[in-house]
Design goal:
Blueprint (H helix, E strand, L loop, with lengths): L6 H4 L2 H7 L21 H11 L6 E7 L1 E2 L11 E2 L6 H19 L4 E9 L7 H14 L1 E2 L6 E6 L8 H7 L4 E7 L3 H7 L5 H13 L3 E9 L6 H14 L3 E6 L21 H17 L3 E4 L2 E3 L4 H7 L4 E3 L2 E3 L5 E5 L4 E4 L2 E5 L3 H9 L5 E6 L2 H16 L1 E3 H8 L3 H4 L1 H12 L3 E3 L3 E4 L1 H4 L2 H6 L3 H5 L11
Helix pairs in contact: 4-5, 4-12, 9-10
The structure holds S-adenosylmethionine and iron/sulfur cluster.
Length: 465
């Protein structure tokens, strides 16, 4: 199903202009703004107890919030500090949280996916990394290295000589690296000075130690970027030849993210220039042989993401796209989100609250969402659209026991509008996203978002493009 496209097919300026509105990225459905405090640590304990009684793989997300310096563009959940000792109580709390979860869920279910995100996971030192990983392996049953996807986010500036070796030794086999842009004036304006050499060094070490599917994050829309300047960054990255590239659209929301106020808005590229940078990036990446997977992600044709997409076995979760079947997810650390027993659970957002809750022996969950049958149906539809660029109505009818056209009458009418605009083609059996609709996949997914439809107030989502 995945086929190589030409830039002019993918990048349709008229459609982009028409559909350029804010929308969710659908790393979950319902999306996080729907979470509410009616779900808490007590509900989580009950759901975990039920989760211990069922079969199926488990996924674990562990959040390390600390960063040594702040990148002004950053919209991630982070705590900026130079005080390394602040990690000590955090690691203690994580170890306790691992125990609390394992006491409830038990070792019966195989962990096939693990992801450490941040912040900067390598803010932790070797002994802290070893003690967390040791505890996880002691308390949970992990899939073998060949079967499991065990990933970590790396900031190459926060990586010592033997860090990559240690990470591989403790069991990580996937890596994602932040770069954004290599131009000196861009790096200065966003307070992230990172050389090509240190980035390449980490990449080469990762390859030498057997990491697979290595990803690099880039960002367009940053201050001082131009088509010409970003072309140089793209050339360097293409030479580095990572397995995957994530190309994020800079979401400038200074009212939500304080550090972004230090970015001079006059230095940001104009909307027209941003689109030109996006078009150039697509052109360069497709020409270099990368496949557009969907929602900011590109991968080599033989990467496991591309293969999974071809086979209709791609999934989407809080970390983006994944080859792991729709596993239940345990979140560890502040702000992390889990998905267990048909419900989302999010951990407390501040260190103080998190420590207090763990100290009291209570799960540090402050909000979440219990999915209804209708939510499950819509979650499935949105997941398949985002992953397959297609939807088999008959398969949905069979799986959920509905009549698609009757159940989704309003949605089907809207799909016909999108078809008239050339985003997709559809008949009574299903829909196929056309090349020009691929960059706008979340607009198509939004048709099935019941809450977006009924939402009165404006919610802060980033722009589609
Ligand atoms: C969770 S961050 C962690 C990566 C790691 N700390 C590092 O900096 O290398 C993952 C990625 O989110 C992206 N990101 C952060 N802030 C963003 C923003 N405001 N808009 C779009 N993407 C953003 C960046 O590309 C970043 O590499
Ligand atoms: S981009 Fe990474 S290193 Fe920079 S502030 Fe955000 S989380 Fe920290």
């Amino acid at each position: 199903m995945t086929q190589q496209l030409h830039t002019d097919e993918l990048f349709n300026l008229d459609l982009i202009h028409k559909y350029d509105k804010a929308g969710p990225r659908y790393t979950s459905y319902p999306t996080a703004p729907m979470f509410h405090t009616g779900i808490n640590g007590t509900s989580y304990a009950a759901s975990l107890a039920r989760a211990s009684q069922v079969e199926g793989p488990l996924s674990i997300y562990l959040h390390v919030p600390f960063c040594d310096t702040v990148c002004y563009y950053c919209g991630c959940n982070k705590v900026v500090t130079k005080q390394r000792e602040r990690a000590v109580p955090y690691v203690e709390a994580l170890l306790k949280e691992i125990d609390m979860l394992a006491d409830t869920v038990g070792r019966k279910r195989l962990v096939t996916q693990l992801h450490w995100g941040g912040g900067t996971p390598t803010f932790l030192n070797e002994s802290q990394i070893r003690s967390i990983m040791g505890r996880l392996r002691e308390r949970f049953e992990f899939a073998s290295d060949a079967e499991g996807e065990f990933g970590i986010e790396i900031d190459p500036r926060e990586c010592e000589d033997d860090t990559v070796r240690i990470l591989r030794e403790v069991g990580f086999n996937r890596m994602s690296m932040g770069v954004q842009d290599f131009e000196p004036d861009v790096q200065k304006a966003v307070n992230r000075i990172q050389s090509e050499e240190e980035t390449l060094n980490v990449l080469q070490q990762a390859r030498a130690h057997g990491f697979q599917s290595i990803n690099i994050d880039l960002m367009y829309g940053l201050p001082h970027q131009s088509v010409e300047s970003f072309d140089r960054t793209l050339s360097t990255i293409i030479d580095f030849s990572p397995d995957r590239i994530a190309l994020f659209n800079y979401a400038h929301l200074p009212r939500m993210f304080m550090p972004q106020r230090r970015i001079n808005e006059a230095d940001l590229p104009s909307p027209g220039e941003k689109l030109n940078i996006l078009k150039l990036s697509i052109d360069r990446l497709l020409s270099a042989g990368y496949v557009f997977i969907g929602m900011d992600h590109f991968a080599k044709p033989d990467d496991e993401l591309t293969v999974a997409q071809r086979e209709g076995k791609l999934y989407r979760n809080f970390q983006g796209y994944s080859t792991q079947a729709d596993a239940e997810l345990l979140g560890l650390g502040i702000t992390s989100i889990g998905y267990v027993d048909g419900a989302f659970f999010q951990n407390l957002k501040t260190l103080e609250e998190y420590y207090a809750s763990i100290e009291a022996g209570e799960f540090p969950v402050f909000r979440g969402y219990q999915l209804s049958d209708e939510d499950h149906l819509r979650r499935h539809v949105i997941m398949r659209l985002m992953c397959d660029f297609a939807l088999d109505f008959k398969a949905v009818e069979k799986k959920f026991g509905i009549d698609f056209a009757a159940h989704f009458a309003v949605e089907t009418a809207e799909l016909h509008d999108l078809a008239a605009d050339g985003l997709l083609s559809l008949d009574t059996n299903g829909l196929q996203v056309l090349p020009g609709g691929r960059l706008l996949i979340r607009n198509i997914a939004m048709v099935f978002d019941e809450y977006l439809r009924n939402r009165k107030e404006e919610v802060k989502f980033s722009k589609v493009i």
